[in-house]
Design brief:
alpha/beta, Rossmann fold, 5-stranded parallel beta sheet, 11 helices, 35% helix
Length: 315
C-alpha cells in the first residue's frame, strides 16, 4: 500500500518519521507533501495513493476520482465537511476522522473566550497600555451564569464539565439528538436555550439542520447582556446577522474561531469589525498536545485499516 500525506500534521519531522518507518517496515510506502490548494498538484501527488491523509485541506471529488487505487481517506480532523463524501461514496472509498484529539484544546479555548469577554480583557489591556484605569470595564463572573450549548458530543460535554466547575448552570438545545437531561445538562427547546442563556456556546457539526441555525430570528431571543461563542463551524452562524446584533447592542459580545471559509479571511468580513468580538483564525484545535494526540489517532486508523478493520468511521 502507498500512504500519501498531503499536508502537515503539525508534529516534528522526527516524530513523523517514526510513524513512516513503521509503515515501511511492514512493506508499505509513505510520501509526505506540503499543503497546496492547487488541485492539479494534489492530483499529481495523490494519483498512485492507496491511502490519503489530510487535515483541514479541502479534498475535492476531482482529486478523489483521479486516484484509481484509492481505498481509504484518513482525515486528521474532527469535521469532514471539507471532503467530497459523495465522490468517496461513489468510488467505494472508506473515510475515517480523528475524533477526540482536540476535545481538551477546543474546550479550553472556549473557556478562555468566555472569561476574556466577561472580564473585558482586550479593553482593559488597551486601557492599561494607554495609561488608563479600569473605569467603565467592571466585568462579570462565570459563576452563577447559565451556559447554553448547541452540540453535546465530546467537546460540548467537556465544556459543560468545565463551566460547571466554575459554578455555572448548563442547558442545551434538545433538537439534535433528543438526549435525556442529566445532573450536568438540562435539555430545552431552541427558543428556551437562546433566551435563558447568558452564554451560548456552539459545538455542533454543519448539517442541514444546523446550517444557519444562529440567525437574526434566533439571535433576537438572546438577552442584551448575553455573549455567543462559535468554535463549531462557520456556516452554523449567519455572520452578518450576528455582526448586526453586536453592533446594535442586541447582544453583548462574541468569540469567533470559525468562519464560512478557512483563514485567511477577507478583511472586510463583518465579524472582523463588529463590537466586542474576539476573532481567531481557526486555532481552537491547535495545541502541541493535540497535534501529538491527533497523530496517534491518524496512524492507529491506518494500522487498523490495513488489518481489515476501520475505526472512527465516517464512510
Amino acid at each position: 500500500m502507498k500512504v500519501v500525506l498531503l499536508e502537515s500534521l503539525g508534529i516534528s519531522s522526527d516524530l513523523l518519521a517514526t510513524y513512516a518507518d513503521k509503515l515501511k517496515a511492514q512493506g508499505h510506502s509513505f510520501a509526505a507533501y506540503e499543503r497546496t490548494d492547487d488541485v492539479s498538484v494534489q492530483i499529481e501527488e495523490a494519483n498512485d495513493a492507496d491511502i490519503l491523509i489530510i487535515a483541514n485541506m479541502p479534498l475535492k471529488g476531482e482529486v478523489i476520482r483521479a486516484c484509481p487505487h484509492l481505498k481509504y481517506i484518513d482525515v486528521a480532523f474532527t469535521g469532514v465537511d471539507h471532503v467530497d463524501l459523495a465522490a468517496a461514496r461513489e468510488r467505494g472509498v472508506r473515510v475515517s476522522n480523528a475524533s477526540g484529539y482536540s476535545t481538551v484544546a477546543v474546550a479550553e479555548l472556549t473557556i478562555a473566550m468566555m472569561l476574556h469577554l466577561l472580564r473585558y480583557v482586550a479593553q482593559v489591556d488597551a486601557a492599561c497600555r494607554a495609561g488608563g484605569t479600569k473605569a467603565g470595564f467592571i466585568g462579570y463572573e462565570l459563576e452563577g451564569k447559565t451556559v447554553g450549548l448547541f452540540g453535546t458530543g465530546a467537546i460540548g460535554h467537556r465544556v459543560a464539565e468545565l463551566v460547571h466547575a466554575f459554578g455555572a448552570k448548563v442547558i442545551a438545545y434538545n433538537g439534535f439528538s433528543h438526549k435525556e437531561s442529566t445532573a450536568l445538562i438540562t435539555y430545552v427547546s431552541l427558543e428556551e436555550v437562546m433566551s435563558m442563556a447568558d452564554i451560548i456556546s456552539l459545538h455542533c457539526p454543519v448539517t442541514e439542520q444546523s446550517r444557519g441555525l444562529i440567525n437574526a430570528k434566533t439571535l433576537s431571543y438572546m438577552k442584551p447582556s448575553a455573549i455567543l461563542i462559535n468554535e463549531a463551524r462557520g456556516p452554523v452562524v449567519d455572520s452578518q446577522a450576528l455582526a448586526d446584533a453586536l453592533n446594535t447592542g442586541k447582544i453583548a459580545g462574541a468569540g469567533i474561531d470559525v468562519f464560512e471559509v478557512e483563514p485567511p479571511i477577507d478583511t472586510k468580513h463583518p465579524l472582523l469589525h463588529s463590537k466586542n468580538t474576539i476573532v481567531t483564525p481557526h486555532v481552537a484545535f491547535a495545541t502541541h498536545e493535540s497535534m501529538k494526540k491527533r497523530a496517534v489517532i491518524v496512524f492507529e486508523n491506518i494500522d487498523n485499516f490495513l488489518a481489515g478493520k476501520q475505526l472512527n468511521i465516517i464512510l
